[in-house]
Specification:
heterodimer, A: mainly alpha, 9 helices, 0% strand, B: alpha/beta, three-stranded antiparallel beta sheet, 8 helices, 21% strand, disordered N terminus
């Protein structure tokens, strides 16, 4: 299973692998917002948590359809399904690889972009923490969505429509935890909810995704 | 001596590559494609060292049968008996990653199948399909025939005794077909099995199974799932 993870990471960083695509998208969205809203520091600081979270979520969405579609097209999924690896493990590794190439880099560059949105310096640690806790859920929910749409031609749009509503709880609690943290208020509850959602998706969705894949391969 | 049995068995298995008494037994198998039954009553037994060629016109269900054997889709009925995790499936698509080199592609499948002594096995597979000169080229730069050879080389790294291959010789030239036939012959000589859907003769001594004989009755499927025989509805006079 480690082999699968390493292969996916290697494919992502090679030319045409799409690594950095989400990152650049994240950068562009957060740069565009101050242009659209205008140079009002106080207003930007107020909306920064929401903007950063929505941008991270959309950047994540961008690369979701690559998770299974490429392996489906070249027949790899069939061969993996008949290999000794359990499909549940395959789905989990796919989710992990997606997070390592999308969610984690997004988290790491987010404080740099928060400067553009005039976020108070004290909130950077909360930004890092909430994204670190929340983005794995985005990748694992996305893996499930990608499994659902694996056989669909041009399934990217359908995938977005399926997955975005499922992202709502993560977005709600993530942005709320960040907002409260930035204001210096107590944010234990949204943080715990965020962590709970992430753990739940990591624990359950690989099994669901594997079952959906089996049905889609028939 | 109590320990003699297992040691002896280990020795025997090293001499013959695959454990003895290996058998693939298919009885009364029905398969469906897209919910429509295409084959029913498929019966055959394949034991170690044997190969079977699947024949029949396009659309008769050769791929469906192979996918059912590989466990990619459930059978409508009947039984497939074989040792667990003993079948290597080779599909139309080779499962190659264009951005990885030939060697990396093979090394990946060797790791997935947990091959011990991976590097030596990869080199052996490269040798067997004459891919040594291409080992460090990215797979995207290979020709169709070379890709096919790479896809077939993967089979050697699965370490599995039963090869279920769907049109394995597509886009291979005569030289490569001979290379492939030799590999299959050696695989079977070592106690392995091969079941192949192919239209060309490989110059191999193999049984052929014409699937036309097992074409599913189109009437029997409309009654839902095809499990109910048609004459149960229309055959007997006491219904009227």
């Amino acid at each position: 299973m480690i082999a699968l993870l390493l292969r996916d990471l290697r494919l992502a960083v090679r030319a045409g692998g799409g690594f950095g695509l989400g990152l650049v998208f994240f950068l562009i969205v957060t740069v565009l917002v101050p242009f659209g809203v205008g140079p009002e520091g106080a207003l930007l600081a107020q909306i920064a948590p929401g903007i950063l979270w929505v941008a991270a979520l959309l950047a994540c969405l961008l690369s979701l359809d690559r998770i299974f579609a490429l392996d489906y097209e070249d027949g790899t999924i069939d061969l993996l399904a008949t290999s000794p690896l359990p499909l549940e493990g395959v789905a989990a590794m796919k989710g992990l690889a997606h997070w390592l190439t999308t969610g984690l880099p997004l988290t790491l560059v987010a404080p740099g972009l928060a400067v553009l949105l005039n976020m108070p310096a004290g909130a950077y640690s909360w930004l890092l923490l909430t994204l670190l806790i929340g983005t794995p859920a985005l990748s694992f929910i996305g893996t499930f969505g990608a499994a659902l749409t694996v056989g669909v031609k041009r399934g990217g749009l359908l995938l977005s429509l399926l997955v975005l509503p499922l992202y709502m709880p993560t977005l709600l609690f993530g942005a709320e935890a960040l907002r409260r943290g930035a204001e210096g208020a107590d944010n234990t509850v949204p943080l715990l909810m965020l962590a709970g959602i992430t753990l739940g998706t990591i624990g359950l969705l690989p099994f669901v995704a594997a079952q959906v894949l089996r049905i889609n391969l028939r | 001596m109590a320990g003699g049995g297992p040691i002896l068995c280990l020795f025997a298995c090293a001499a013959i590559r695959y454990a003895c008494a290996m058998e693939l037994k298919v009885s009364d198998l029905s398969c469906a494609r897209g919910g429509m039954p295409v084959l029913e009553g498929v019966d055959f037994t394949l034991s170690g060292g044997e190969m079977l060629l699947l024949r029949g016109p396009n659309g008769i269900g050769k791929t469906t049968l192979l996918r059912t054997l590989a466990g990619l889709q459930p059978a409508l009925g009947g039984t497939i008996i074989m040792p667990p995790e003993s079948l290597a499936y080779g599909a139309h698509a080779d499962g190659l990653k264009a951005m990885l080199t030939v060697r990396e592609n093979l090394a990946f499948w060797a790791r997935v199948h947990g091959v011990p002594d991976m590097e030596r096995e990869v080199v052996r597979a490269l040798d067997e399909f004459n891919l040594n000169d291409l080992a460090d080229r990215p797979a995207r730069s290979l020709s169709a025939g070379q890709k096919r050879r790479l896809g077939l080389a993967r089979l050697l790294l699965t370490g599995r005794p039963i090869w279920a291959l769907d049109e394995p010789t597509v886009s291979l030239d005569t030289e490569s077909v001979a290379l492939f036939a030799e590999t299959v012959r050696r695989h079977c000589a070592a106690g392995g099995m091969a079941i192949m859907a192919t239209h060309i003769g490989l110059g191999l001594e193999a049984r052929a199974l014409d699937l036309s004989a097992f074409r599913a009755d189109p009437d029997s499927c409309r009654a839902g799932g095809g499990s109910v025989p048609a004459d149960a509805f229309f055959g007997d006079e006491d219904l009227a």
